[in-house]
Design goal:
Serine Threonine Protein Phosphatase 5, Tetratricopeptide repeat; 2 domains
Amino acid sequence: MMNILKLLLLAICVIIVSSCGSTIPTNLTNPEEIFNSGVKYLDDEDYLEAKKMFDLIIFQYPASQYADDAQFYQGELSYKKGEYILAAFNYNRLRKQYPSSMYVKDALYKTAMSYYKLSPSYDRDQEYTNKAIETLQEFQYLYPKDELFGDVSNKIQELRNKLAYRDLFTAQLYSKLDNPRSAIIYYESVINNFSDTDSYEPAFIGKIKALIFMKKEKEAESMIIAYKANFPESNNFDMLDRLLRGIKQ
């Protein structure tokens, strides 16, 4: 079975290379010329011809000094076309196959940006949001003094705000459905995991209201004390104290 798969893979590679070779101008006689031609096609947005040039280098000249260039530009090509899943694949392949390449840092950043572009609205599955955060954090860890550090921090914050709001929205939905127990689970998720986000304070208030709704006086009182400590400038103290007095009567 493995031999069959290897033969199929070889056949695919041969087809790719053959298709590339059939359209290569005769004046392109070495990897440098082929690569430069691919970059020109890419700049001219002739993505099909650009891919053929980069494929040719990857498959026919894998030991050349332009192999990592071609692999990186495959990612650039996919990114420009808006094919972000394929772009992330190509950038990651560059990092794995050419770990000493000059493109490694850029490939890591562009991988993160590919996932960032794939991050959907808060009400959808957040797999790519989490991947984007993880990759952006990896970039910060590896390149703490890079000029992109601030931009990366802003994007991480943006994505964390999205994840926090997703849990807050779910909690508020359960509260509207008079299901405070389920609501508290999601309020606590925000409180415990997203204290740096815009949803942190609303989650505190939401949990307090849910506890008061359930007439859990002691727990609500403890949460109000914690809220006042975390948000000393808040204008909600009177409102929360009034709600708490309501269940004491």
